[in-house]
Design goal:
The protein is α/β, with parallel strands linked by helices and 376 residues long. The protein contains 15 helices and 15 strands. Helix content is 35%, strand content 16%.
């Protein structure tokens, strides 16, 4: 199979979808790898590093798409990339389609098979391709929030850990999954007074053990969150409903009871955001203010640390890429139900139920679309 890797074109995105180690694995298995010139530079990977492991460097994205069966990316395709997709293509990347009807329509019209990292499941029901970036984003969320709390950045001017004689800042983490757990770990490490909210009592019990009792675990009722909001300096939204739009956990009305200069970090922004007042921002212009509260809603947070993120992501995605490239996408989907859950769009149909429900469309079971997936 010919696997193509274009340069990411989303604003402030520096990751790349394959490393030289991945190229070596693919070429050793008899596959060809086409990489756009300069695709790895943001992650400190030179074209020569890829060539040394058997990749072919091509001049532009057109050459990648024209010469490849499978397109492997990091972020959702931008409009110019959607326009290059054809029914013969398999696209493997993060998609986050539920809050994005325009992108969904474009992918449906392309006829391509579009597999989303974020909805692939393993045999235990976990999300193995979302987890590494959730770990990075969770750690970055507290780090970014701490920075935005500084007065010159529009924050209250509080230090998360405080100092002897001055109380630590209060950090609220809403969501006890991978993002929330890592955000709490960093908050605790920075000596913040940390509160973690979740709606699963079993998960809260696990967090008590995982966090060593260094954070308060709280049931995430609307009232409980609302009663804590006037006290906190930093809120990290880490809410996930698999494949669906994120639920709203803080309303605009509730901003009025927060401290002036408090900071909201919305890690759920890829799925539409979990704060009513959230809208996507970039690393170049990461924040805005609503009713005196700073909002940090960068839609590709792990892209800020591409050397870490690229290797963490590709460690997880490479086994799936090898499986599809080796035996064909059709066979891989038939033999791996968890990978089949990653198929969001194929042959002009939406196959993800959460995406279809979010957009008011009908979904088609993946099993009914297998015949339309190209065999290569």
């Amino acid at each position: 199979m010919r696997v193509g890797v274009p340069t990411e074109v989303k604003v402030d995105e520096y990751r790349v979808a394959i490393t030289p180690a991945g190229v070596r694995e693919l070429t050793d298995s008899g596959n060809q790898v086409l990489i756009q010139a300069g695709a790895g530079e943001g992650s400190a990977i030179n074209d020569a590093d890829y060539v040394a492991q058997g990749a072919k460097i091509v001049p532009d994205a057109d050459a990648v798409f024209e010469g490849s069966h499978m397109i492997v990316k990091v972020k959702e395709p931008q409009p110019e990339e959607v326009a290059r997709l054809e029914p013969r293509h398999v696209l493997f990347t993060y998609l986050h389609l539920a809050p994005d009807p325009e992108l969904t329509r474009g992918l449906v019209e392309s006829g391509a098979t579009c597999i989303a990292y974020e909805t692939v499941e393993d045999q235990h029901g976990h999300l193995p391709l979302l987890a590494p970036m959730s770990e990075v984003a969770g750690k970055l969320a507290t780090q970014a929030g701490a920075f935005m709390m500084e007065k010159p950045l529009g924050g209250r001017g509080a230090l998360i850990g405080g100092v002897p004689g001055v109380a630590a800042a209060k950090v609220m983490v809403i969501g006890g999954g991978v993002v929330g757990t890592n955000a709490a770990i960093i908050s605790i490490g920075m000596q913040g007074e940390t509160y973690v909210y979740d709606r699963s009592i079993d998960r809260l019990r696990e967090l008590e053990i995982e966090l060593g009792g260094h954070a308060s675990t709280c049931f995430a009722s609307t009232l409980e969150i609302e009663q804590r909001l006037p006290e906190v300096d930093l809120v990290i939204g880490a809410v996930l409903v698999r494949g669906a739009k994120a639920p709203r956990v803080i309303t605009r009305e509730q901003l009025k009871i927060m401290k002036p200069g408090a900071v909201l970090v919305d890690v759920s922004i890829d799925q539409g955001g979990c704060f009513e007042t959230s809208h996507a921002t970039t690393h170049s212009d990461p924040t805005y203010e609503v009713d005196g509260v700073t909002h940090y809603c960068v839609a590709n947070m792990p892209g800020a640390v591409p050397i870490t993120s690229t290797y963490a992501l590709t460690n997880a995605t490479m086994p799936y890429i090898l499986r599809m490239a080796g035996g064909g996408v059709h066979a891989a989907l038939e033999h791996d139900p968890g990978l089949a859950l990653g198929v969001n769009v194929v042959g002009g149909a939406i196959t993800s139920l959460p995406v279809a429900e979010a957009l008011g469309e009908q979904s088609v079971p993946v099993i009914e679309t297998l015949a339309s997936i190209p065999r290569v």
